[in-house]
Amino acid sequence: MAMNTVGRPTTPVAHDAAAPATFSGAKGLLQPTSLIFETGAIDRTGVDLPPVKGIKPRLGGLARTSSTGNPGLSEPEAVRHYVRLSQRNYAIDLGMFPLGSCTMKHNARLNEKMARLPGFADVHPLQPISTVQGALRVMDELSHWLMTLTGMQAVALSPKAGAHGELCGMLAIRAALDARGQAHRRRVLVPESAHGTNPATAVQCGFVVDEIKAAPDGRVDLSDLKTKLGDDVAGIMLTNPNTCGLFERDIRIIADLIHEAGGYFYCDGANFNAIAGAVRPGDLGVDAMHINLHKTFSTPHGGGGPGSGPTVLSAALAPFAPVPYVVKRADGSLDLIEHEADSDGEPFGRMVAFHGQMGMYTRALTYMLSHGADGIRQASEDAVLNANYVQACLKAHMSPAFEGVCMHEALFDDSWLDGTGVTTLDFAKAMIDEGYHPMTMYFPLVVHGAMLIEPTESESKASLDAFIATMTSLAQAAKSGDTARFTGAPHHAPVKRLDETRAARKPVLKWTPPAEISQIAAE
C-alpha cells in the first residue's frame, strides 16, 4: 500500500460489505438527508422581522388567511439541506457524463467569469438602447461568427433552446412558402431516426409528417426519400451527423432533391459540435438550422442553466427571420429592430418578449474567441476521435450498431447481451454503482436496446481509459452469468431500483405528513 509523507495510506482499502451500520445514518462524510418538510417546521422561520405597520392591502379581499405549509429552517439548516442533496447528484464536475446526443461537456470557467461581468450579468431588457451598446455588440459579434461557421446569411438569436430553434426555422419555411403562394405545401419529410422534437415541431407549425425509412447502414434510405417527393412537400427535417452518430454521406444529393421538388432543407443542429469549424452546413444546401449554444459552445446544459438555440437561415429564408434582431446604424451604433413594420424583410412574427439570454451569448462568444477557428475545429475533431476510440476499444466486448467509423458518438445495440438475462436498462443501472452516469438508453429507436455513448472532447485519454475499463469489466461480468449484479442494481446509490413505469404514470408530487397517512390508513 502506498504511503504519503505523513504516513497515511493513499490507496483506498477494498469496500467492506460487512461494515456496521452507523447510529447517525451517515456514511463517512456523506450525511443523511431528509425531506425539507421533515426537517423544517411551519411554525418557525430563519428570520426575525417585526410586523409591518401601516400597510393597506391592495389584494381586494384575496389576501391569504392561512399558512402555505412551507417549512421554516434556519440559514445553516437550509444550506446544509441543499449541499447534502448536491452530493447525491451526478455532475460533469464530478465525473464523465457519457450521455449520447446530449453533449454533456465541461463548461470552461473563463466563460462563467465573463458572463458575470457587470453590464452583462445585470443587464435589463427594458434599458434604453444607448445604455446596452456593449451587450448588443456581443450579440452582433456572436451572430457574425455563427453565420461564418455555418455559411448562412442570417441568424435569429431569440429562440430559447433547440426545440424552440426548430420552431423558428420551420415557421420561417412556412412563411416563405406562403409568400410565394404555395400554402398547399404542408408535408414535411422526417427520417425515422430523427429526434422526437422534429416531427412534434413540424406538426406544431401546421405541417403533416411523412416518415423516411433508414437504410441498413443507419443513414437515410435514398430510394424511399425519392418516392416521398411531390408538389406538396414543404421540406425535410434531417440531423447531420444523424442520431446514430453517422454522417449522412448523401447530404448534397438529399438537399438537391428537396430543392428540385420545391421544398426547403431544415437541418437539426443538435450535433453541430461534431463538425463545427470543419463543415459549413450552408455549403451542404441547408436552408435553416438551429444551434444549441449549450451543447456546441459550452454554456450550461439543461438543468444547469437556460438553454439557447439560435437559428441560422439561408438567403432564401433570411427575409423571414423573426424580430427582434440587431442592426448597425450609419453612425456605427447598434439598434434592435423590435417591430415587423420597421424591418426591411418579411418577419414571420415574434417568438419571445425579450431575448433574455445574455449570459448564454456571452459564454458562447467567449468560448469562440478563446478557442479561435483552429481550436473550434480541433474540439470537433477531438470529439470524433474520442468517440471512435471508445467504439474501437469496446467493440470486442459489445456490439456496434453499424459497421465502420462513427462521428461524435458511439452507438451499440444489445445483441451482445443475448442469453445473459441482462437488459440495456440493467447494464445502465450497474454503471451507477461504478460511479458513472448511464449512457443514453433505447435511443435512437431504430436500434434495438440502443446504448448511445458520447464522450465529448472534454475527456482526456486517461479518463476514457478508465471508462472503457469499467465498461469492459461490466460486459465481462454480464457474459459470465453474474446476473444478480445487474438486475438488482444500483446497489450503492442513495435510492435503489425503482418501478420507473409506475413512477412516471403515478408520480407522487406532494408530501403528505405521516399523521395524515396514518389517518388515511385507519379509514
From TrEMBL:
GO cellular component: cytosol; glycine cleavage complex
Keywords recorded for this protein, A-Z: Oxidoreductase, Pyridoxal phosphate
GO biological process, any: glycine decarboxylation via glycine cleavage system
GO molecular function: glycine binding; glycine dehydrogenase (decarboxylating) activity; pyridoxal phosphate binding
EC number from the UniProt entry: 1.4.4.2
Residue span(s) of domain Glycine dehydrogenase C-terminal: 379-479
Protein name (record): glycine dehydrogenase (aminomethyl-transferring)
Organism: Candidatus Phycosocius bacilliformis
Gene label: gcvPB
